[in-house]
Design a protein that fits this description.
Elements: H1 11-34, E1 42-43, H2 45-52, H3 56-65, E2 71-73, E3 76-80, H4 81-92
Antiparallel strand pairs: 1-3, 2-3
Length: about 100
Amino acid sequence: MQTIISTTFTPDELTGLIMAAVERTVRPMIEAAVQPPHSPKLLTRQETAHFLGISLPTLHEWTMNGKITANRIGTRVRYYQTDVEAALRQIKTGGR
């Protein structure tokens, strides 16, 4: 079904309608682009060990030796994915 509206607009009214329609469409995109980045993802010990391809005892050893940084949240240990990726890059390059 097609509806045809026969209304006369002044150039200023038409400009205003177009601007309003564009703003409704573009504003959410602009707001999404300006939003601060999301918090880094937190990984469990198991997820971290799997990501690195190591065992839990090795992950514990690496944490105690300072090769990777752990974060205690209450009674739980979590690793920021960005920290894990940085540690992995450093391990692969021999700590340089």
